[in-house]
Amino acid sequence: MSMNVTLSREDVVRLCERVEGAQKRACAIPKLTDEYPGMTMGDGYAVQFELRRRFLEQGHRQVGWKAGLTSKAKMQQMGVSVPSIGFLTDRMARPENSAISTADLVHPRVECEVAFVMKKTLAGPGCTRADVLAATDYVLPAVEIIDSRFSGFKFDLESVVADNGSSARFVGGGRARYAEELDLRTLGVVMEKNGEIVTMGASAAVLGHPAEAIAMLVNILAELGEELPAGSFVMSGGITEAIAVKPGDSIIARFQELGSVSMRFVD
Ligand code: OOG
Ligand code: MG
Known about the structure:
By secondary structure, the protein is an alpha+beta fold. It has helices at 9-25, 41-57, 72-78, 129-135, 157-162, 210-223, and strands at residues 62-68, 84-89, 99-101, 109-118, 136-146, 167-172, 188-193, 196-202, 233-235, 243-244, 250-255, 259-266. A hairpin with a 3-residue loop joins β11 and β12.
């Protein structure tokens, strides 16, 4: 993966302001590569890290990271072929069973994910699935509410990375379990919207094993000069495709062995 930054500092700041404005005002913007066709993945991460710097300066607290585009269903749905990472903050967390506002989102969609809570700091390069499992405190089920800020869902990897991997909200819940007590490859998950099953899958959809996505995330972090700290909450990526939600919808994600996570959406 190329992590070279080709944009000037001024351009990184300009693009960051554009993404931050779209996130805060919940308005769609054209994908960034329309104006900067030469943007690299390194440029995308430079914009993402500038966004994180600003959020932390504004008092947001980083609670962890997310891997994205780690399943075939997600890659096909979004037309990309390489996973990405994004940061998670306290402002994005929502309690289980809560009413989540859509007024401050552009086009929210929900996806089922296995989340990991780390008890040891991990550093790449060369981080493996076994390293991740040895450093994991416990796993829990989560629903990510993603919100790509790009008009008509038209994006490419560079733009989505700059937009922090479409991160918007997340809900962790269900039953926390020790990873060694489960076969993390074969966990089934069913998502219901308004009482009807809308999508289903098994955790192996995520790179063969969700811990593989965490290892990949640690290795991308290493390329960006960072470690995954102990205590981090990390989402391994959507198992199924993402499902659009609107006010009035209620969602239940039922995970085998891990219980269920629910929420409803309001104006
Ligand atoms: C990109 C975010 C992908 C996942 O779990 O695959 C993601 C998007 O689909 O907008 O969070
Ligand atoms: Mg996701």
